[in-house]
Amino acid sequence: SPSAANLQALRYIISYEPKKNAAIFSHLSWAGYLKEWIGPKEGERPSAYIVVLGDTRISKNFWCGYGIAAQSILLGAAELGLGGCMIGSINKEELRNALDIPEYYEIHIVIAIGKPKEKVVIEQAKDADDIKYWRDERGVHHVPKRSLDEIIINNKRG
């Protein structure tokens, strides 16, 4: 993955073992807009996790590097027929303790990877404030996205 000044300061903890996966799962929050859903049930949970870390002995600034790396990983997973999700809602100190992560590693994001169970539909948001994802009665996960006219501003004011 690209790296500012080629410092290559990102580090990764890869987990595919059930016991370690359970430890990681317990320190994550899932789909905040779906208030009634506390996350995937046993048997539906991701089969692997990647904890993305920044080594502060190499750099103090990670800017968007971990997001670029995470997106590259997710694109590779999709190519293999796997689903994935970047999770930023992490109890970082509890995860640090559970995995015995040294203090000089900054926890940035967790990537969950597995065989997708649900169908996800990307659709245009009805209005600018309508960005909350939701599930319909068939369990289809709807994700509203802002229109290109809204997000590409090319010299527009507003």
Description:
The chain has 158 residues and is of the alpha+beta class. It has two domains: 114 residues, NADH Oxidase (3-Layer(aba) Sandwich), CATH 3.40.109.10; 41 residues, putative fmn-dependent nitroreductase like domains (putative fmn-dependent nitroreductase like fold), CATH 2.20.180. The chain has four helices and seven strands, in the order E-H-E-H-E-H-E-E-E-E-H. The strands form two sheets. A four-stranded antiparallel sheet has the order 1-2-4-3. The chain has a three-stranded mixed sheet with strand order 5-7-6, with no helix packed on it. A hairpin with a 5-residue loop joins strand 6 and strand 7. It is globular. The two termini are 34 Å apart.
Question: Uncertain runs with pLDDT below 50, 5 residues or more?
Answer: none
SSE pattern, N- to C-terminal: EHEHEHEEEEH
Question: How many whole angstroms does the radius of gyration measure?
Answer: 18 Å
> Structural class of the helices, strands and pairings?
alpha+beta
What's the CATH architecture of the largest domain? Answer: 3-Layer(aba) Sandwich
- Proportion of beta-strand residues: 25-35%
Average pLDDT figure: 93
How many structurally independent domains? 2
CATH topology of the largest domain: NADH Oxidase
Strand order of the largest sheet: 1-2-4-3
Range of helix content = 10-25%
Number of strands: 7
What is the assigned CATH homologous superfamily of the largest domain? Answer: NADH Oxidase
CATH class of the largest domain: Alpha Beta
> What coarse outline follows from CA principal-axis ratios?
globular
Distance between the termini: 34 Å
What count of helical segments does DSSP give?
A: 4
Biggest β-sheet, characterized?
Answer: 4 strands, antiparallel
